[in-house]
Amino acid sequence: MHSEVALAAIKQNSGALMHVAAELMSDREFMLAAVQHDGYLLEHGTAELRADRVIVQHAAVQNRHALMFAATELLGDRELMLAAVQADGRALAFASAPLKADRDFCLTAVHQHASAIEHVSKALLKFDRELLLVGLRANGRLLREASAELKGDCEVVMQAVQNDGKALAFASQEARRDRGVVLAAAQENRYALGFAAAELTDDPQLLLEAVKVDGKALEFASSRVKANREVVLAAVGMDGMVLQHASDALKADTGVVLAALQQDNWRHAYRLLPTVAAALWNDAAFVSALASNDVSLLKQSPGELTSRAATLAAVRADGRALERASAALRADRTVVRAAVRSDRGAICYASDELRADHAFVLDATTQRGAPGPDLDAQGDEVDGDHDGDHDGDHDGDHDGGHDGGHDGGHDGGH
User: Is the pLDDT of residue 297 over 90?
Assistant: First the structure.
């Protein structure tokens, strides 16, 4: 194949080199043109061409990986390798050991591509602040290679944790007590708080800023901060599941728990409800909110409902919630009537005494869906008992008035 035709084919598809005549593979001018199009084609050159400084330099500038096929002695050629790292700092990976310990050469490489810092001599990196500051932009964990002095340099540590918050693990104790450094680390990665000084994980303001970025940072707060309502509200507003890390007192706080449940539109309610305080199940506002969202959530109650107001809120949303009520409430005419009005089948959960009261059962089941009585905050009727007492008084007044009037009129007539 003619060299011009072969080059045209290679420019269309580098794989065409596989079909080029053997004599062209050893042709210097042909290979020089080929590697300028695709440096990786150096792989197919003869040993003599792979040791040709000009060809290798052009190949390396076009593709740093071409240096894998270059003659070993060329990897220590400062001028050739400088051209390569100026084109792509990552070519430093292929440089000889002396070049990886050459400060100016390495600075050129890392300024071109910060990740080249991975290939700098560890001995050079340990004490060179400028090199380290540039390189930490690409890999914060290289802080582990720094000298003790540089690990205590807050500017150096800040550069490291902004790239990788967990690099705080390699910082000095003094740097771990620096509020700005720790906050930057925590906002990049919450796990950084595991390496912070104890006094900072007990700082409500610092934790407030951290949980606004990642609610799960609450896990690393001190017990005192986990009891801080403002911090916990901010945390559950980001991730409702972190309620599990809140203090017991806040797990019993209706506002905090509801904020956690609502954070992800109740999607994790079944996972979250087992972590809340049992006392909340007797809080009318809490039970009402659950029932309003999904009545089946009431079945997550860990024990009996003992609050009359909470039980009324529950049964009005789902009559079968009466099953979770205490024996006393299952014998409460107002509660049972409300439950049956919501779901006629709830009568099976009423006390034996009420189920045996046919007049009550008939009245409750035939008025299904009727509005219940007005109640005060404790669940008591505002205008008297809607059931037993009211019914008794009504009957007594009606009978007495009717009989009295009738008898009086009759006697008077006679």
Answer: no
